Please model this.
Amino acid sequence: MSNLVTDTGVVFSRELRPMLRNPVTVVFSMVQPLVFLGLFAPLLPDDLSLQWFVPGIVVMSCLFGTSMTGSNLLFEIQTGSHQRMLVTPLRRPALLLGRALKEIVPVLAQAALIVGLCLPGSFELHLAGALVGLAILATFCLGLGALSYTLALAAKHREWLFWTVQQTLLFPLLLLAGMLLPIANGPGWLRALSRWNPLTYVVDAERALFNGEIWTSTTAAGVLAAAGVGAAGLLVGTRAMKNSD
Amino acid sequence: MIQTEELTKHFKDVKAVQGLTLTVRPGELVALLGPNGAGKSTTLRMLTTLIPPTSGTARVAGFDVVARQRDVRLRIGYIGQGNGAGHSQRGRDELISQGRAYGLRVGQARRRAAELIDSLGLGEVADRTVATLSGGQRRRLDIAMGLIHEPGLLFLDEPSTGLDPQNRANLQEHILALRERHGTTIVLTTHYLDEADSMAERVIVVDHGRIIADDTPAALKATHVGDSIRLGFDHETDVAAAAARLRFPRVRRDGLTLEIGVPGAPRLVPDLLEDLRAAGTAAASVEVTRPTLDDVFLRLTGRSLREGGAVAGTRSDELVEA
Model:
Protein backbone atom coordinates (compact mmCIF):
# COMPACT_ATOMS: atom_id res chain seq x y z
CA MET A 1 0.00 0.00 0.00
CA SER A 2 1.19 3.45 -0.76
CA ASN A 3 1.05 6.33 1.68
CA LEU A 4 2.60 9.77 2.01
CA VAL A 5 5.91 8.28 3.18
CA THR A 6 6.29 5.79 0.32
CA ASP A 7 5.16 8.43 -2.18
CA THR A 8 7.78 10.82 -0.81
CA GLY A 9 10.32 8.00 -1.10
CA VAL A 10 9.48 7.53 -4.79
CA VAL A 11 9.95 11.24 -5.52
CA PHE A 12 13.08 11.46 -3.36
CA SER A 13 14.82 8.56 -5.08
CA ARG A 14 13.82 9.81 -8.53
CA GLU A 15 15.34 13.21 -7.73
CA LEU A 16 18.47 11.71 -6.26
CA ARG A 17 19.14 9.25 -9.06
CA PRO A 18 20.82 11.59 -11.60
CA MET A 19 23.19 12.68 -8.84
CA LEU A 20 24.02 9.10 -7.91
CA ARG A 21 24.57 8.26 -11.57
CA ASN A 22 26.89 11.21 -11.93
CA PRO A 23 28.27 12.30 -8.52
CA VAL A 24 30.50 14.99 -10.01
CA THR A 25 27.41 17.19 -10.39
CA VAL A 26 27.53 17.81 -6.61
CA VAL A 27 30.56 20.01 -7.20
CA PHE A 28 28.97 22.16 -9.96
CA SER A 29 26.73 24.25 -7.71
CA MET A 30 29.53 24.82 -5.16
CA VAL A 31 32.02 26.45 -7.51
CA GLN A 32 31.33 29.92 -6.08
CA PRO A 33 31.70 28.91 -2.41
CA LEU A 34 34.97 27.21 -3.34
CA VAL A 35 36.13 30.38 -5.08
CA PHE A 36 35.40 32.37 -1.92
CA LEU A 37 37.22 29.78 0.12
CA GLY A 38 40.27 29.89 -2.14
CA LEU A 39 40.44 33.57 -3.09
CA PHE A 40 38.61 35.42 -0.30
CA ALA A 41 39.73 33.52 2.81
CA PRO A 42 43.41 34.56 2.32
CA LEU A 43 42.28 38.22 2.37
CA LEU A 44 40.63 37.95 5.78
CA PRO A 45 42.03 40.30 8.47
CA ASP A 46 44.25 38.60 11.03
CA ASP A 47 41.60 38.48 13.74
CA LEU A 48 39.33 36.32 11.54
CA SER A 49 40.47 32.71 11.41
CA LEU A 50 39.60 29.90 9.03
CA GLN A 51 37.74 28.46 12.03
CA TRP A 52 35.43 31.48 11.82
CA PHE A 53 35.20 31.54 8.01
CA VAL A 54 34.55 27.86 7.11
CA PRO A 55 31.11 27.48 8.73
CA GLY A 56 29.98 30.51 6.71
CA ILE A 57 31.20 28.87 3.51
CA VAL A 58 29.34 25.67 4.40
CA VAL A 59 26.13 27.68 4.74
CA MET A 60 26.93 29.60 1.57
CA SER A 61 27.29 26.37 -0.36
CA CYS A 62 23.86 25.32 0.90
CA LEU A 63 22.42 28.72 -0.01
CA PHE A 64 23.76 28.70 -3.57
CA GLY A 65 22.85 25.14 -4.44
CA THR A 66 19.49 24.96 -2.74
CA SER A 67 18.16 28.33 -3.84
CA MET A 68 18.80 27.33 -7.47
CA THR A 69 17.15 23.94 -7.21
CA GLY A 70 13.77 25.26 -8.32
CA SER A 71 15.28 25.69 -11.78
CA ASN A 72 15.26 21.89 -12.16
CA LEU A 73 11.52 21.88 -11.54
CA LEU A 74 11.13 24.89 -13.82
CA PHE A 75 12.80 22.93 -16.60
CA GLU A 76 10.58 19.93 -15.95
CA ILE A 77 7.51 22.17 -16.05
CA GLN A 78 8.66 23.33 -19.47
CA THR A 79 9.52 19.90 -20.88
CA GLY A 80 6.39 18.18 -19.56
CA SER A 81 7.82 15.75 -17.03
CA HIS A 82 6.30 17.68 -14.13
CA GLN A 83 2.89 17.21 -15.73
CA ARG A 84 3.74 13.53 -16.08
CA MET A 85 4.24 13.36 -12.28
CA LEU A 86 1.00 15.28 -11.68
CA VAL A 87 -1.14 12.70 -13.48
CA THR A 88 0.26 9.88 -11.35
CA PRO A 89 -1.56 9.01 -8.11
CA LEU A 90 1.39 10.35 -6.08
CA ARG A 91 0.11 12.55 -3.27
CA ARG A 92 0.71 16.24 -3.99
CA PRO A 93 2.65 16.99 -0.77
CA ALA A 94 4.98 14.08 -1.63
CA LEU A 95 5.86 15.77 -4.92
CA LEU A 96 7.28 18.66 -2.90
CA LEU A 97 8.58 16.80 0.16
CA GLY A 98 10.55 14.29 -1.90
CA ARG A 99 12.20 17.05 -3.87
CA ALA A 100 12.97 19.23 -0.87
CA LEU A 101 14.35 16.33 1.18
CA LYS A 102 16.69 15.40 -1.64
CA GLU A 103 18.34 18.83 -1.28
CA ILE A 104 19.81 17.68 2.02
CA VAL A 105 22.03 15.11 0.31
CA PRO A 106 24.18 17.44 -1.83
CA VAL A 107 24.36 19.94 1.05
CA LEU A 108 25.82 17.30 3.37
CA ALA A 109 28.20 16.07 0.67
CA GLN A 110 29.37 19.61 -0.01
CA ALA A 111 29.85 20.34 3.69
CA ALA A 112 31.98 17.20 4.04
CA LEU A 113 34.01 18.26 1.02
CA ILE A 114 34.63 21.79 2.34
CA VAL A 115 35.61 20.52 5.79
CA GLY A 116 37.85 17.91 4.17
CA LEU A 117 39.58 20.61 2.13
CA CYS A 118 40.19 22.78 5.20
CA LEU A 119 41.38 20.12 7.63
CA PRO A 120 45.02 20.30 6.50
CA GLY A 121 44.94 24.05 7.28
CA SER A 122 44.34 25.75 10.60
CA PHE A 123 40.75 24.47 10.75
CA GLU A 124 39.89 22.27 13.68
CA LEU A 125 36.92 19.89 13.52
CA HIS A 126 34.68 19.42 16.57
CA LEU A 127 32.65 16.46 15.36
CA ALA A 128 29.69 16.51 17.77
CA GLY A 129 29.12 20.23 17.25
CA ALA A 130 29.54 19.91 13.51
CA LEU A 131 26.93 17.15 13.35
CA VAL A 132 24.39 19.24 15.27
CA GLY A 133 25.30 22.12 12.94
CA LEU A 134 24.60 19.96 9.89
CA ALA A 135 21.23 18.91 11.32
CA ILE A 136 20.28 22.58 11.63
CA LEU A 137 21.59 23.24 8.13
CA ALA A 138 19.58 20.31 6.75
CA THR A 139 16.39 21.74 8.27
CA PHE A 140 17.16 25.15 6.86
CA CYS A 141 17.86 23.84 3.36
CA LEU A 142 14.71 21.72 3.42
CA GLY A 143 12.74 24.95 3.81
CA LEU A 144 14.90 26.90 1.38
CA GLY A 145 14.54 24.15 -1.24
CA ALA A 146 10.77 24.16 -0.77
CA LEU A 147 10.76 27.95 -1.23
CA SER A 148 12.83 27.66 -4.39
CA TYR A 149 10.35 25.10 -5.75
CA THR A 150 7.49 27.39 -4.78
CA LEU A 151 9.14 30.16 -6.77
CA ALA A 152 9.48 27.81 -9.74
CA LEU A 153 5.80 26.82 -9.52
CA ALA A 154 4.82 30.48 -9.35
CA ALA A 155 7.09 31.45 -12.26
CA LYS A 156 5.99 28.49 -14.41
CA HIS A 157 6.93 29.42 -17.95
CA ARG A 158 8.52 32.73 -17.01
CA GLU A 159 12.07 31.56 -16.42
CA TRP A 160 13.37 35.13 -16.14
CA LEU A 161 11.08 35.71 -13.17
CA PHE A 162 12.59 32.80 -11.27
CA TRP A 163 16.17 33.94 -11.84
CA THR A 164 15.43 37.59 -11.17
CA VAL A 165 13.91 36.85 -7.77
CA GLN A 166 16.54 34.26 -6.86
CA GLN A 167 19.48 36.48 -7.82
CA THR A 168 17.95 39.57 -6.21
CA LEU A 169 17.51 37.85 -2.87
CA LEU A 170 20.68 35.77 -2.83
CA PHE A 171 23.40 38.33 -2.12
CA PRO A 172 21.52 40.57 0.34
CA LEU A 173 20.66 37.48 2.40
CA LEU A 174 24.23 36.27 2.20
CA LEU A 175 25.90 39.56 3.11
CA LEU A 176 23.37 40.47 5.81
CA ALA A 177 23.97 37.13 7.50
CA GLY A 178 27.61 38.05 8.03
CA MET A 179 28.70 35.11 6.00
CA LEU A 180 31.84 36.75 4.58
CA LEU A 181 32.63 39.49 7.12
CA PRO A 182 31.30 40.06 10.63
CA ILE A 183 28.22 42.22 10.91
CA ALA A 184 29.34 43.44 14.34
CA ASN A 185 31.75 45.91 12.67
CA GLY A 186 29.03 47.39 10.47
CA PRO A 187 26.83 50.47 10.95
CA GLY A 188 23.70 50.28 13.12
CA TRP A 189 21.17 50.11 10.26
CA LEU A 190 22.98 47.15 8.75
CA ARG A 191 23.05 45.34 12.08
CA ALA A 192 19.33 46.02 12.46
CA LEU A 193 18.61 44.56 9.04
CA SER A 194 20.77 41.59 9.84
CA ARG A 195 18.65 40.79 12.89
CA TRP A 196 15.65 40.32 10.59
CA ASN A 197 17.49 37.80 8.45
CA PRO A 198 16.84 34.23 9.65
CA LEU A 199 20.04 33.17 7.93
CA THR A 200 22.03 35.27 10.43
CA TYR A 201 21.00 32.98 13.27
CA VAL A 202 21.81 29.89 11.25
CA VAL A 203 25.29 31.19 10.39
CA ASP A 204 25.96 32.22 14.01
CA ALA A 205 24.85 28.82 15.25
CA GLU A 206 27.06 27.03 12.71
CA ARG A 207 30.07 29.07 13.85
CA ALA A 208 29.46 28.23 17.49
CA LEU A 209 28.80 24.57 16.76
CA PHE A 210 31.79 24.07 14.44
CA ASN A 211 33.79 25.53 17.32
CA GLY A 212 32.45 22.83 19.65
CA GLU A 213 30.05 25.09 21.60
CA ILE A 214 26.80 23.09 21.62
CA TRP A 215 24.68 24.09 24.64
CA THR A 216 24.37 27.80 23.97
CA SER A 217 21.55 30.24 23.25
CA THR A 218 23.16 30.82 19.84
CA THR A 219 22.45 27.18 18.99
CA ALA A 220 18.87 27.54 20.22
CA ALA A 221 18.36 30.63 18.06
CA GLY A 222 19.80 28.76 15.06
CA VAL A 223 17.47 25.80 15.64
CA LEU A 224 14.47 28.15 15.85
CA ALA A 225 15.42 30.07 12.71
CA ALA A 226 16.04 26.89 10.70
CA ALA A 227 12.84 25.26 11.95
CA GLY A 228 10.91 28.42 11.07
CA VAL A 229 12.29 28.50 7.53
CA GLY A 230 11.71 24.75 7.21
CA ALA A 231 8.10 24.93 8.33
CA ALA A 232 7.30 28.05 6.30
CA GLY A 233 8.88 26.56 3.18
CA LEU A 234 6.99 23.28 3.45
CA LEU A 235 3.73 25.08 4.15
CA VAL A 236 3.77 27.38 1.13
CA GLY A 237 5.45 24.73 -1.00
CA THR A 238 2.86 22.01 -0.46
CA ARG A 239 0.12 24.55 -1.04
CA ALA A 240 1.69 25.65 -4.32
CA MET A 241 2.14 22.03 -5.41
CA LYS A 242 -1.50 21.28 -4.67
CA ASN A 243 -2.54 24.00 -7.10
CA SER A 244 -0.01 23.10 -9.75
CA ASP A 245 -1.24 21.96 -13.15
CA MET B 1 -15.78 4.90 -19.21
CA ILE B 2 -16.26 8.66 -19.46
CA GLN B 3 -19.39 10.69 -18.79
CA THR B 4 -19.35 14.44 -18.79
CA GLU B 5 -22.23 16.76 -18.12
CA GLU B 6 -22.00 20.39 -19.27
CA LEU B 7 -18.26 20.37 -18.64
CA THR B 8 -16.99 23.95 -18.82
CA LYS B 9 -13.64 25.68 -18.38
CA HIS B 10 -13.03 29.40 -18.47
CA PHE B 11 -9.58 30.97 -18.16
CA LYS B 12 -10.06 34.62 -17.23
CA ASP B 13 -11.65 35.94 -20.44
CA VAL B 14 -11.19 32.82 -22.53
CA LYS B 15 -14.06 30.35 -22.68
CA ALA B 16 -11.92 27.34 -23.52
CA VAL B 17 -14.57 24.66 -23.10
CA GLN B 18 -18.27 25.46 -23.12
CA GLY B 19 -20.77 22.91 -21.84
CA LEU B 20 -19.33 19.64 -23.12
CA THR B 21 -21.65 16.67 -22.65
CA LEU B 22 -20.16 13.43 -23.79
CA THR B 23 -20.16 9.69 -23.16
CA VAL B 24 -17.38 7.30 -24.10
CA ARG B 25 -18.07 3.57 -23.71
CA PRO B 26 -15.44 0.99 -22.74
CA GLY B 27 -13.24 -0.10 -25.63
CA GLU B 28 -13.96 2.89 -27.86
CA LEU B 29 -11.24 4.70 -29.76
CA VAL B 30 -12.28 8.32 -29.95
CA ALA B 31 -10.50 11.21 -31.62
CA LEU B 32 -11.16 14.79 -30.62
CA LEU B 33 -10.56 16.75 -33.77
CA GLY B 34 -10.38 20.49 -34.06
CA PRO B 35 -8.08 23.43 -34.80
CA ASN B 36 -5.54 24.73 -32.28
CA GLY B 37 -7.34 26.49 -29.45
CA ALA B 38 -10.58 24.57 -29.96
CA GLY B 39 -10.49 23.29 -26.37
CA LYS B 40 -9.27 19.74 -27.01
CA SER B 41 -6.29 19.84 -24.65
CA THR B 42 -8.23 21.73 -21.99
CA THR B 43 -10.87 19.00 -22.11
CA LEU B 44 -8.22 16.33 -21.71
CA ARG B 45 -6.60 18.18 -18.82
CA MET B 46 -9.95 18.28 -17.02
CA LEU B 47 -10.63 14.61 -17.68
CA THR B 48 -7.16 13.68 -16.37
CA THR B 49 -7.61 15.73 -13.12
CA LEU B 50 -4.88 18.21 -14.05
CA ILE B 51 -7.23 21.19 -13.88
CA PRO B 52 -10.62 21.50 -12.19
CA PRO B 53 -13.62 22.40 -14.34
CA THR B 54 -15.18 25.84 -13.90
CA SER B 55 -18.57 24.13 -13.89
CA GLY B 56 -20.16 20.86 -14.93
CA THR B 57 -19.12 17.36 -13.94
CA ALA B 58 -17.07 14.51 -15.33
CA ARG B 59 -16.80 10.90 -14.27
CA VAL B 60 -13.79 9.09 -15.59
CA ALA B 61 -13.20 5.36 -15.07
CA GLY B 62 -16.10 5.43 -12.63
CA PHE B 63 -14.99 8.33 -10.43
CA ASP B 64 -15.62 12.04 -10.26
CA VAL B 65 -12.59 13.99 -11.51
CA VAL B 66 -12.82 16.55 -8.72
CA ALA B 67 -13.95 14.55 -5.68
CA ARG B 68 -11.98 11.35 -6.41
CA GLN B 69 -8.82 12.52 -8.15
CA ARG B 70 -6.60 9.73 -6.86
CA ASP B 71 -9.02 7.00 -7.94
CA VAL B 72 -9.17 8.51 -11.41
CA ARG B 73 -5.38 8.90 -11.61
CA LEU B 74 -4.80 5.27 -10.63
CA ARG B 75 -6.93 4.05 -13.54
CA ILE B 76 -5.94 6.28 -16.42
CA GLY B 77 -2.86 6.74 -18.54
CA TYR B 78 -2.04 10.14 -19.98
CA ILE B 79 0.48 11.02 -22.62
CA GLY B 80 0.72 14.78 -22.80
CA GLN B 81 2.17 17.05 -25.44
CA GLY B 82 5.54 17.40 -23.73
CA ASN B 83 8.16 14.82 -22.82
CA GLY B 84 7.26 12.81 -19.76
CA ALA B 85 10.79 11.76 -18.96
CA GLY B 86 13.09 14.19 -17.14
CA HIS B 87 15.95 15.19 -19.40
CA SER B 88 18.62 14.49 -16.81
CA GLN B 89 17.22 11.03 -16.11
CA ARG B 90 17.78 7.75 -17.89
CA GLY B 91 14.82 6.22 -19.67
CA ARG B 92 14.80 2.98 -17.72
CA ASP B 93 15.10 4.82 -14.39
CA GLU B 94 12.13 6.98 -15.31
CA LEU B 95 10.04 3.96 -16.23
CA ILE B 96 10.84 2.34 -12.89
CA SER B 97 10.05 5.58 -11.01
CA GLN B 98 6.73 5.77 -12.84
CA GLY B 99 5.93 2.18 -11.95
CA ARG B 100 6.69 2.95 -8.31
CA ALA B 101 4.50 6.04 -8.50
CA TYR B 102 1.59 3.79 -9.46
CA GLY B 103 2.30 1.54 -6.49
CA LEU B 104 4.22 -1.27 -8.19
CA ARG B 105 6.91 -2.95 -6.11
CA VAL B 106 10.50 -2.43 -7.26
CA GLY B 107 10.73 -5.88 -8.85
CA GLN B 108 7.42 -5.49 -10.65
CA ALA B 109 8.37 -2.02 -11.85
CA ARG B 110 11.67 -3.33 -13.22
CA ARG B 111 9.99 -6.19 -15.06
CA ARG B 112 7.32 -3.94 -16.48
CA ALA B 113 9.94 -1.39 -17.58
CA ALA B 114 11.91 -4.12 -19.34
CA GLU B 115 8.76 -5.34 -21.14
CA LEU B 116 7.90 -1.87 -22.38
CA ILE B 117 11.47 -1.09 -23.43
CA ASP B 118 11.36 -4.28 -25.44
CA SER B 119 7.96 -3.77 -27.04
CA LEU B 120 8.65 -0.14 -27.97
CA GLY B 121 12.10 -0.87 -29.35
CA LEU B 122 13.95 1.27 -26.82
CA GLY B 123 16.55 -1.36 -25.89
CA GLU B 124 19.53 0.54 -27.22
CA VAL B 125 18.68 3.90 -25.70
CA ALA B 126 16.93 3.03 -22.43
CA ASP B 127 20.11 3.41 -20.38
CA ARG B 128 21.15 6.69 -21.93
CA THR B 129 20.32 10.13 -20.57
CA VAL B 130 16.97 11.26 -21.97
CA ALA B 131 18.44 14.54 -23.23
CA THR B 132 20.54 12.60 -25.76
CA LEU B 133 17.55 10.81 -27.35
CA SER B 134 15.96 11.82 -30.64
CA GLY B 135 12.43 13.23 -30.79
CA GLY B 136 10.97 9.92 -31.96
CA GLN B 137 12.77 7.95 -29.24
CA ARG B 138 11.56 10.35 -26.56
CA ARG B 139 8.03 10.05 -27.83
CA ARG B 140 8.20 6.26 -27.63
CA LEU B 141 9.52 6.62 -24.10
CA ASP B 142 6.54 8.88 -23.31
CA ILE B 143 4.21 6.16 -24.56
CA ALA B 144 6.00 3.57 -22.44
CA MET B 145 5.67 5.80 -19.37
CA GLY B 146 1.97 6.27 -19.96
CA LEU B 147 1.46 2.51 -20.19
CA ILE B 148 3.52 1.42 -17.19
CA HIS B 149 0.47 0.55 -15.07
CA GLU B 150 -1.52 -0.97 -17.95
CA PRO B 151 -4.34 1.56 -17.74
CA GLY B 152 -7.76 0.60 -19.05
CA LEU B 153 -8.25 4.12 -20.34
CA LEU B 154 -5.55 6.03 -22.17
CA PHE B 155 -5.53 9.70 -23.08
CA LEU B 156 -3.13 10.98 -25.72
CA ASP B 157 -2.77 14.70 -26.34
CA GLU B 158 -1.49 15.34 -29.87
CA PRO B 159 0.55 12.14 -29.78
CA SER B 160 2.22 12.54 -33.16
CA THR B 161 2.89 16.27 -33.29
CA GLY B 162 6.50 16.91 -34.26
CA LEU B 163 7.15 13.38 -35.50
CA ASP B 164 8.28 12.52 -39.00
CA PRO B 165 5.86 10.43 -41.12
CA GLN B 166 7.63 7.16 -40.36
CA ASN B 167 7.55 7.70 -36.61
CA ARG B 168 3.94 8.78 -36.83
CA ALA B 169 3.03 5.56 -38.61
CA ASN B 170 4.97 3.58 -35.98
CA LEU B 171 3.18 5.31 -33.17
CA GLN B 172 -0.23 4.72 -34.69
CA GLU B 173 0.62 1.05 -35.06
CA HIS B 174 1.59 0.84 -31.39
CA ILE B 175 -1.63 2.47 -30.29
CA LEU B 176 -3.78 0.21 -32.44
CA ALA B 177 -1.87 -2.88 -31.31
CA LEU B 178 -2.36 -1.89 -27.70
CA ARG B 179 -6.06 -1.66 -28.20
CA GLU B 180 -6.17 -4.93 -30.09
CA ARG B 181 -4.35 -6.76 -27.31
CA HIS B 182 -5.84 -5.22 -24.17
CA GLY B 183 -9.10 -3.64 -25.28
CA THR B 184 -7.89 -0.31 -23.93
CA THR B 185 -10.28 2.62 -24.26
CA ILE B 186 -8.42 5.39 -26.06
CA VAL B 187 -9.16 9.09 -26.31
CA LEU B 188 -6.78 11.14 -28.40
CA THR B 189 -6.67 14.68 -29.65
CA THR B 190 -5.22 15.51 -33.01
CA HIS B 191 -5.24 18.11 -35.68
CA TYR B 192 -3.97 15.59 -38.24
CA LEU B 193 -6.99 14.72 -40.34
CA ASP B 194 -5.61 11.48 -41.70
CA GLU B 195 -4.78 10.33 -38.19
CA ALA B 196 -8.32 10.81 -36.95
CA ASP B 197 -9.61 9.29 -40.15
CA SER B 198 -7.50 6.15 -40.17
CA MET B 199 -7.41 5.39 -36.45
CA ALA B 200 -10.59 6.47 -34.77
CA GLU B 201 -13.94 4.75 -34.97
CA ARG B 202 -15.52 7.83 -33.61
CA VAL B 203 -14.56 11.40 -34.32
CA ILE B 204 -15.76 14.24 -32.17
CA VAL B 205 -15.31 17.53 -33.97
CA VAL B 206 -14.68 20.39 -31.56
CA ASP B 207 -14.66 24.07 -32.36
CA HIS B 208 -14.67 27.09 -30.01
CA GLY B 209 -15.02 24.79 -27.00
CA ARG B 210 -18.15 23.04 -28.27
CA ILE B 211 -18.89 19.72 -29.93
CA ILE B 212 -20.14 20.40 -33.44
CA ALA B 213 -20.28 16.82 -34.73
CA ASP B 214 -19.84 13.33 -33.29
CA ASP B 215 -19.94 10.16 -35.40
CA THR B 216 -17.83 7.62 -37.28
CA PRO B 217 -15.55 9.20 -39.88
CA ALA B 218 -17.54 7.52 -42.67
CA ALA B 219 -20.88 8.74 -41.36
CA LEU B 220 -19.56 12.27 -40.84
CA LYS B 221 -18.38 12.41 -44.41
CA ALA B 222 -21.53 10.85 -45.85
CA THR B 223 -23.85 13.08 -43.82
CA HIS B 224 -22.09 16.37 -44.26
CA VAL B 225 -20.37 16.19 -47.63
CA GLY B 226 -20.87 12.98 -49.62
CA ASP B 227 -19.04 11.39 -52.57
CA SER B 228 -18.90 12.79 -56.05
CA ILE B 229 -18.05 11.48 -59.53
CA ARG B 230 -16.50 13.78 -62.13
CA LEU B 231 -16.80 12.67 -65.71
CA GLY B 232 -14.75 14.32 -68.44
CA PHE B 233 -15.82 14.26 -72.11
CA ASP B 234 -14.13 15.10 -75.39
CA HIS B 235 -17.13 16.63 -77.17
CA GLU B 236 -19.87 19.08 -76.20
CA THR B 237 -22.52 16.78 -77.70
CA ASP B 238 -21.41 13.87 -75.51
CA VAL B 239 -21.71 16.00 -72.37
CA ALA B 240 -25.26 17.01 -73.22
CA ALA B 241 -26.28 13.47 -74.14
CA ALA B 242 -24.73 12.00 -71.01
CA ALA B 243 -26.31 14.67 -68.83
CA ALA B 244 -29.71 13.81 -70.26
CA ARG B 245 -29.14 10.11 -69.71
CA LEU B 246 -27.90 10.19 -66.09
CA ARG B 247 -30.69 9.76 -63.57
CA PHE B 248 -29.11 11.25 -60.46
CA PRO B 249 -30.68 14.00 -58.40
CA ARG B 250 -27.50 16.07 -58.22
CA VAL B 251 -25.75 16.53 -61.53
CA ARG B 252 -23.82 19.70 -62.31
CA ARG B 253 -22.39 20.57 -65.71
CA ASP B 254 -19.21 22.60 -66.03
CA GLY B 255 -17.85 22.88 -69.59
CA LEU B 256 -16.75 19.43 -70.67
CA THR B 257 -17.22 17.85 -67.26
CA LEU B 258 -20.18 16.55 -65.32
CA GLU B 259 -20.10 16.39 -61.54
CA ILE B 260 -22.46 13.93 -59.87
CA GLY B 261 -23.04 14.03 -56.14
CA VAL B 262 -24.01 10.56 -55.00
CA PRO B 263 -23.36 8.35 -51.96
CA GLY B 264 -21.36 5.16 -52.49
CA ALA B 265 -19.79 6.53 -55.67
CA PRO B 266 -16.93 3.99 -56.09
CA ARG B 267 -19.41 1.10 -56.46
CA LEU B 268 -21.48 2.93 -59.03
CA VAL B 269 -18.69 3.92 -61.39
CA PRO B 270 -18.14 0.63 -63.31
CA ASP B 271 -21.82 0.28 -64.34
CA LEU B 272 -22.10 3.95 -65.04
CA LEU B 273 -19.16 3.91 -67.45
CA GLU B 274 -20.43 0.80 -69.20
CA ASP B 275 -23.83 2.35 -69.62
CA LEU B 276 -22.39 5.55 -71.12
CA ARG B 277 -20.20 3.56 -73.52
CA ALA B 278 -23.15 1.43 -74.63
CA ALA B 279 -25.09 4.61 -75.31
CA GLY B 280 -22.26 5.90 -77.50
CA THR B 281 -21.35 8.77 -75.17
CA ALA B 282 -18.29 7.27 -73.52
CA ALA B 283 -16.51 9.38 -70.91
CA ALA B 284 -12.89 10.30 -71.62
CA SER B 285 -11.87 10.46 -67.96
CA VAL B 286 -13.35 9.75 -64.59
CA GLU B 287 -12.48 10.83 -61.10
CA VAL B 288 -14.15 9.70 -57.91
CA THR B 289 -13.82 12.17 -55.06
CA ARG B 290 -14.41 11.04 -51.54
CA PRO B 291 -14.63 13.74 -48.85
CA THR B 292 -12.02 14.12 -46.15
CA LEU B 293 -12.70 15.14 -42.57
CA ASP B 294 -11.42 18.54 -43.57
CA ASP B 295 -14.31 18.85 -46.00
CA VAL B 296 -16.61 17.95 -43.12
CA PHE B 297 -15.05 20.62 -40.96
CA LEU B 298 -15.21 23.14 -43.77
CA ARG B 299 -18.89 22.38 -44.31
CA LEU B 300 -19.64 22.68 -40.60
CA THR B 301 -17.68 25.83 -39.83
CA GLY B 302 -16.85 27.50 -43.12
CA ARG B 303 -13.16 27.19 -42.22
CA SER B 304 -10.50 24.65 -43.10
CA LEU B 305 -8.75 22.60 -40.45
CA ARG B 306 -5.51 22.57 -42.33
CA GLU B 307 -2.62 24.67 -41.06
CA GLY B 308 -3.54 28.34 -41.12
CA GLY B 309 -7.26 27.61 -41.21
CA ALA B 310 -7.66 29.19 -44.65
CA VAL B 311 -10.93 28.68 -46.45
CA ALA B 312 -10.16 25.97 -48.96
CA GLY B 313 -11.84 22.90 -50.28
CA THR B 314 -9.11 20.50 -51.28
CA ARG B 315 -10.16 16.92 -51.42
CA SER B 316 -8.15 13.76 -51.60
CA ASP B 317 -8.59 12.39 -55.04
CA GLU B 318 -8.91 8.83 -56.10
CA LEU B 319 -8.40 8.15 -59.75
CA VAL B 320 -10.18 5.30 -61.39
CA GLU B 321 -9.15 4.15 -64.83
CA ALA B 322 -11.92 4.44 -67.36
Summary: The CA atoms of residues 100 and 142 of chain A lie 5 Å apart. Chain A touches chain B through 26 residues (CB under 8 Å). Chain A is about 75% helix and 0% strand.
